[in-house]
Write a structure and sequence with these properties.
This protein has 292 residues and is mainly alpha-helical. The chain has helices at 2-10, 14-24, 42-45, 49-52, 54-72, 76-86, 120-135, 159-168, 175-194, 199-212, 232-249, 257-274. The radius of gyration is 25 Å and the shape is elongated. It holds the Pfam family CTLH.
Length: 292
């Protein structure tokens, strides 16, 4: 149960997590074999440690899911606001030391290092770059969370689809002011990139900005050579990086424990096969151990 709940909380499947804890709890039966009714406040009286700490574990997961939805929808300012409110160390201006794993706890041998940068400076700059990209759009790119997908596709004559089509071709009310705003954003991004301490990071971001700022050269950037920056994949990449940083800064693994253990076990089996390690007799196996 603990591994499954960890997986559900890690992926912010909060509704499923609540149902899982409720349905997987030990059932108490009366003398006739009928299930006893649950108390009015089960968290305080069931004695189930998972139920007692469930809401505490789900609260940050729900905030993380909301941040992910904002990022995948292109609402960078809203995502930054939630980060500053609930996970301030992710974008901390004080550049506090990285939290990582709790050094006071003994190592489990399963430490996992994020593959993307968790440096607050890099994350803040990445979010500002994506805010610039979103501001440069001339055609909205809607995002529908999995739970919000329509059950049936809209017909071409659907009023909702017609309204969306009208919205998609609506440009800025003042093109000159919009262009000035984009230029100001680009200048600020270049200044921030120039201020990076690391020469390697500075060079990397300046190259990135030289490409991204190409959006300024086109009145229809969605159909330009730099349209790749306007794809949903870019939102997904920054969402993954922010999610990884949140988990890292809150002393959580960037992957669920069951995924980490699976990777670890897969490597062990591959190495055993490669070096032709023989499996010991069953009589020498620890109690409860069996081959996968």
């Amino acid at each position: 149960r603990t591994l499954v709940l960890d997986y559900l909380c890690h992926n912010s499947y909060t509704g499923t997590a609540r149902a899982f804890v409720r349905e997987s709890a030990v059932k108490h039966l009366d003398a006739d074999g009928d299930e006893l009714m649950s108390p009015a406040v089960p968290e305080l009286s069931t004695g189930d440690p998972l139920a007692e700490t469930l809401e505490e574990r789900l609260a940050p997961a729900e905030v993380r899911r909301e941040i992910q939805t904002h990022l995948l929808s292109g609402r960078m300012d809203e995502a930054i606001s939630l980060l500053n409110e609930h996970f301030p160390s992710v974008l901390s201006e004080e550049r506090e030391p990285l939290l990582g794993a709790d050094k006071s706890q003994p190592s489990t041998g399963f430490d996992y290092i994020p593959v993307t940068s968790v440096d607050p400076t890099h994350l803040a700059l990445n979010l500002r770059i994506h805010a610039f990209i979103e501001a440069a759009r001339t055609v909205p790119l809607p995002y529908h969370p999995p739970t919000a997908l329509p059950t049936t596709p809209l017909s071409p004559s659907s009023p909702a689809l017609a309204a969306a089509s009208k919205l998609s071709v609506k440009g800025p009310s003042d093109p000159a002011a919009h262009q000035y705003d984009l230029l100001h954003r680009a200048q600020s991004l270049y200044a921030e990139a120039q201020s990076l301490v690391s020469a390697e990071a500075r060079a990397t971001y300046l190259v990135e900005l030289s490409h991204v700022s190409g959006l300024l050269a086109y009145t229809d950037p969605e159909n330009s050579p730099v349209s790749v920056y306007l794809k949903q994949e870019r939102r997904e990449a920054i969402a993954r990086q922010v999610e990884s940083a949140i988990l890292y800064r809150t002393n959580k693994l960037p992957v669920s424990k069951i995924e980490l253990y699976t990777r670890y076990t897969s490597v062990l089996w591959r190495m055993c096969n490669e070096y032709e390690v023989k499996v010991p007799p069953v009589s020498r196996w620890p109690a409860g151990v069996k081959l996968p």
